[in-house]
Design goal:
disordered N terminus; single chain; 3-stranded antiparallel β-sheet; Metal Binding Protein, Guanine Nucleotide Exchange Factor, Chain A
Length: about 150
C-alpha cells in the first residue's frame, strides 16, 4: 500500500468523527451525532472531559436500588450496591460493573489522576481516587450528568 493511500484513508476515517479517542471503542459517533443526542452540559462532560459543579446532580442523593447507565450508550456501569456518600458532592462508588469502565492517566490540574470512562463508547465519567471505602479502597467520583439511573424491581 502506498503511503499516500494509507494517509488518505486514515484522514477520511478520522474526518467522519467515528474514530474514538483511542480507536478501540465498540460504539462511535460523529461529533454532530453526539451533539444531537446530548445537552450542552452532557457533551462537555462526556466528550470534552469537563466536570460538573459539585452538589448539582440529583444522582448524588439517589438511594433507590438499581443501576447507573452510561448516558452515551446505555451500558450499565455501576450498581447502587456499590454507591456511597463520599461527601464530595458527586455520585461516588467503590466499584464498577465488570468490564464496564476503562481508565487512563489524566495529567491535567498539575497532578496525575486516573480518569474513568465507559468501556463501550469512551464517554468520560470522572476520576478514581485511592481514598474510598473497603473492600477496594477506591472512590469512583463521577459526574452525575454522565449517567442515567434505572430502578430495579
Amino acid at each position: 500500500m502506498q503511503r499516500r493511500t494509507l494517509l488518505t484513508g486514515m484522514l477520511a476515517f478520522a474526518g467522519t468523527g467515528a474514530l474514538a479517542r483511542d480507536g478501540s471503542f465498540e460504539i462511535t459517533r460523529t461529533e454532530a451525532q453526539w451533539r444531537a443526542m446530548l445537552s450542552d452540559a452532557e457533551y462537555a462532560v462526556l466528550r470534552e472531559e469537563e466536570t460538573e459543579t459539585p452538589f448539582t446532580s440529583p444522582l448524588n442523593d439517589e438511594t433507590r436500588k438499581g443501576f447507573y447507565h452510561c448516558k452515551g450508550c446505555d451500558l450499565p456501569v455501576y450498581s447502587s450496591k456499590h454507591k456511597y456518600d463520599s461527601g464530595t458532592g458527586w455520585p461516588s462508588f467503590w466499584k464498577s460493573m465488570p468490564d464496564a469502565v476503562g481508565t487512563k492517566p489524566d495529567n491535567t490540574l498539575f497532578a496525575t489522576r486516573t480518569e474513568v470512562h465507559c468501556s463501550r463508547c469512551g464517554s468520560h465519567f470522572g476520576h478514581i481516587f485511592d481514598d474510598g471505602p473497603e473492600p477496594t479502597g477506591k472512590r469512583h467520583c463521577l459526574n452525575g450528568v454522565s449517567l442515567k439511573f434505572m430502578t430495579t424491581a
